[in-house]
Write a structure and sequence with these properties.
single chain; six-stranded parallel β-sheet; globular
Length: about 160
């Protein structure tokens, strides 16, 4: 089964005052596992209001590795599937499982997770791979949703 990791909104604009080390470590490790197995890593970049923002603030944080074969999908809505080509990218690559990580747990991560499910993709949230300015939202986002850890992803990639 082909797997895609969606890394949502890990951008300077949103995370400049946030502790990112723990989530970034899990995201980077999972991305490395998937890349090494020939799976897809997709960085979602929020560009809403980009014409009025400082362009450097829209860049991805340096703590998250963006590799040459990774894809970048720009979005203007909380759901990364809404009015983007993300669904078609996943279909073209015959993705069977979508794993969602990144920022903000109670908003863009959750909306993108729901968007993937609405489009018929098997979907999970990366355990310890999501962030929020409000710590309780991380726990609430995990509640009653499919969550996957990187050891399980590693097992799937190696099988």
């Amino acid at each position: 089964m082909k797997i895609a990791l969606l890394i949502v909104d890990m951008q300077i604009e949103f995370l400049r005052d946030q502790p990112v080390a723990a989530a970034s470590e899990y995201i980077n490790h999972t991305a490395h596992i998937l890349r090494s197995g020939g799976h897809q890593v997709i960085h979602i970049q929020d560009v809403e209001g980009a014409e009025t923002e400082v362009p450097e603030q829209l860049q991805f944080i340096p703590e998250n590795a963006v590799e040459q074969d990774d894809l970048i999908v720009k979005k203007t809505f909380s759901n990364a599937f809404w009015q983007t080509d993300l669904e078609q990218i996943l279909l073209d690559r015959q993705i069977g499982l979508v794993v969602v990580a990144g920022y903000d747990a109670g908003n863009c991560v959750l909306f993108t997770y729901n968007g993937a499910i609405e489009r018929g993709f098997k979907t999970a949230i990366l355990h310890r791979g999501i962030m929020s300015a409000k710590e309780d939202l991380v726990l609430l986002t995990y509640r009653d949703r499919h969550v996957i850890s990187y050891p399980v992803i590693e097992f799937m990639v190696q099988s």
